[in-house]
């Protein structure tokens, strides 16, 4: 079992840096999940801790993940997400250089349940959902180009599908066309920051997850 990396913790919630390769929620089919790691941590100080799963990250994705320690806090965060008062900022490494250094991607996405992937389609339909994503090229190294990504919508595999549709599959993401190996059960996609507006206030709070510690993520700008 990998060690739990805690970014921040108080009486209401705990913020962790999820390792890629793990699923977010506990499962009868997985010995180690991020939720089970959080439970083991909380059991050190409380016999029956409450854990509320506020949001999730794909197994192959690393980065910032928040769990509520009270039901009321879970409700608060669910409301913030529903009202789109939470902004996630991701980092991705792609092999190919984008034609434009920044841009906004607007596509229609259909969830392909059979292949467990998302397909970008040309036109709107009953099955499709609009997905919006902004990207910015911020650095490069020997492996590829570092993109900062801000999704405006939260669709299934949205970032992976939209970048692949642009000819920029994320390194390691064979499902979406990458031919460059990375770590097992992982792609070069990291949930870097999570920013939300405090209820009843104009103040913003940001949590930042340190980058994965391997040679792919060595960049001068970060």
Can you tag this structure with a few keywords?
single chain; eleven-stranded mixed sheet; globular; mainly beta; 13% helix; 11 strands; 222 residues
Ends apart, CA distance between termini = 28 Å
The average pLDDT score comes to 94
Radius of gyration, rounded?
18 Å
Shape: globular
Number of DSSP strand runs: 11
SS summary, helix count = 3
The SSE string, one letter per element, is EEHEEHEEEEEHEE
What fraction of residues sit in β-strands? 25-35%
- What's the story with the biggest beta sheet? 11 strands, mixed
Give a description of the structure.
Strands 1, 2, 3, 4, 5, 6, 7, 8, 9, 10 and 11 form an 11-stranded mixed β-sheet that branches. The two termini are 28 Å apart. With 222 residues, this protein is mostly beta strands. The protein has helices at 34-42, 71-82, 158-165; strands at 6-9, 13-18, 52-53, 62-68, 86-94, 102-112, 117-121, 129-140, 145-151, 189-197, 204-208. It is built from 3 helices and 11 strands. The mean pLDDT is 94. The radius of gyration is 18 Å and the shape is globular. The longest helix has 12 residues, at 71-82.
